[in-house]
Every structure is written in C-alpha cells, then in structure tokens.
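Exam revision sheet. Question 4 asks you to relate a sequence to its structure. Input first:
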Amino acid sequence: MVSEDLPGTQVGGLGKHVVTLSNALLELGHDVDIMGRSDRFHAGSAADIGFNGRVLPGFDFSRPGWKEAQLGFFNPVKRPWFARTIARALLREAAKYDVVHYHGHLPMAGRYVPHDVNFVQTRHDQGSECMIHLRFKQEHVCTTMDPRDCAACIHPTPNALRREVSGMAVRRYRSETAQAFSRHKTIFVSDFLRQAFLRAVPDADLSRARVIHNFIRYPYLKERAVPPGEVKAGQILIVGRIDAGKGFGEFLAQVQGWLPKHAQVAIIGDGPLRGPLESRYAGPQVRFLGWLPYDDVIRMSARSHVLVIPSVWEEPCGTTVLEALALGKQCVALARGGTPELAAYQYYDGQLQLAETMPRLVERLAHILERAPVTVPLPDAFPMDVFHAIPQILDFYHE
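Answer key, structure tokens:
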C-alpha cells in the first residue's frame, strides 16, 4: 500500500481506509506493508496509525508548495514531478510485492509505473480531474469544464496569463491521469466519481476501472452498539473536518432557533472554520467537542438519535454514512455526490433520508426528532464490511 496521507498522528478518511484494508488483509494471512512519507516517519509510525504491520519511509513531501499561492497559478510541472517522486519510491520496492496499491492525490502516478508492475490505484475523491480534489468553489459545487476557469481556485481574480498557465496545468493533469487509468487498474469508490471523470475527460479509456464502494469494519462497530435504553433521544451528531464544503455553517445557520428543547447538536472534528463557527453558534444546545479518537466517535454515534451529514460538496462515498447505516442509526444528508448510492445498504426504509436542499434536510431531521429513536437488532453481517469487499479487491488484483 502506498499513500502520501500516511503516516500521521491524526488520520483522515483516506488514511483510515488504507489502514482498515491493510489490517484486514493481514488477518487473512497476506503480507502487507504501507509506504508513506519519509518526512513524517519515525519508529512508532505504525502504532500512530493503528496499523499492525510495517510502515516504510518512501518520499519527502515536506515542501509541496512551489510558491503556487504567491504566483497565483497552478504550475504545470508541480504535480507530475511529485507523481514521479512517488513512482520512483514505489519502484525501488515493487519487485518484492505481488501488488502495489496506491491511495493518494496524484492519480497520474500510474503513468510513471511500467506496464509489468501490478499497479492498482483507488480514487477516493474528485482529484482525478480537479486540482483541489473537491469540485467546490465559492461555496458551490463547481460545474465548469474549461480548464482555464480552474485558475479561480488559486487566485481570486486571475488575469489572462494566470488563466492560461493554470489551464495548461489542468489539461496536463487530466491528460496524464487518463493515461494512468488506461495503463493500470483503477478502483473508484463510487460510480459518481467514475462518471465525474468522464464528464471532464469524455474520451478517457476506463475499461480497466471498477467501482468498489468504501467499506467499514462491521464487527468492530457491532461490538460498540448500545441497547435502546442507552440511546439519547434528541442527540444529533455531526462528524467531520470543519471546513468549507462540509456544510457545518450552512446547517447551523438553518437550524438556529429551530431546535426543540430536548435536542442537542454535538459536533466532533476540527478545522479552519471551527473557531468562527464555535464563537457564533456554541451554546447549551450546540457543543463543539473537537477531534476525538475513532473509538469515542463510534461509541457516541451508537448513543445518538440521528446522524447528520450536511456536506454541501459532493461526497464521493462517505464512510460516516456507512458507519451510521451499519449501526442502525437514522441519518440525513444532501442528495449529492455518491451518497445516494449508499441507500442500497439501508436496514429499513427511511434509514438514510436524502434532501435536495438544506431547508429540506432540516425538515427531515425535524420529523425524525418528533419520534423515539429507531432501534433495530443488528444483523450478523453487513454488505459493506471490509471482509466482504476484500474478495472483490483480490479478484481485481489478479486480473
């Protein structure tokens, strides 16, 4: 496994995905190592990320900026240079492994890996075609297809030169990514992501691509489920990084003054918008808990009445939704990105409630809070458990 998101002291969704998959493969008797950033590596790196195997230092990303922000345009050379850096690092070790599986933010890396290496990459976000990986600009989902328009994500008022240079960078980025997808195998974590790339690069060859949804570790979640008497009626839980696109501010603004007396919003996470949102909205009914260990997050999820995923950007395949569904919790989210695909994993009708707008999301939340929390006996198995996904992934490795 290879990822520039690892190692680290706080691991995000992509990193958790890699560690969950790697530990499960180890349990099944496979030999798995994780290669990551050498500038973050130390003797305790595996323990930091909860990995039961070996972490290898691979590449140094300590100076990734290349002064793009100061210059005000995307550099056409920067991302291919870092992609080659990753490719060179993994190629030093590739001969020792049957498979090299890349989970990262530089999808063109496969372009620099020879055909004879069994290289697979998983695409976790819209970074296949979007330089900032989000397709979200000025508080709205970005729908532009002109690469020159991407200049507005690096400079607030780009002039003609900045637009042209950024356009060159985006065109090269997308072209090299398409070449990587054609050369090697690719997993998209939702069909939404696959379709999004084809909208940006209509002639891309995705014949070697497959859609395999994200997964969770179901036995771990089931062990932390609570009996009905321990579910706190009225507790609304939101989990995630508190930044633009995640919808925390939009949700809190919409729900302000509306919450029934018994309701409480608990927000787990940190990020650049935590301070201003906490200053504006924190109070007896809205609590900001900061970053918490994963085990605490799951235990609190199990005790909550309902989970809210207020993301206004297009979530590719939110594991928070999968965790809520696996725990039998009701959850509400905007009908964007890959989230609608996850309705297939509901235990019961209405478990995942999708809304087109934030006001409609709050209306659906209101209806849920009017009733007692829904509790159901959890089944022995959940289709999006990592051990159910592994046969699909191993089959893809062997293609």
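Marking note for examiners. Residues 252 and 281 are 7 Å apart (CA to CA).
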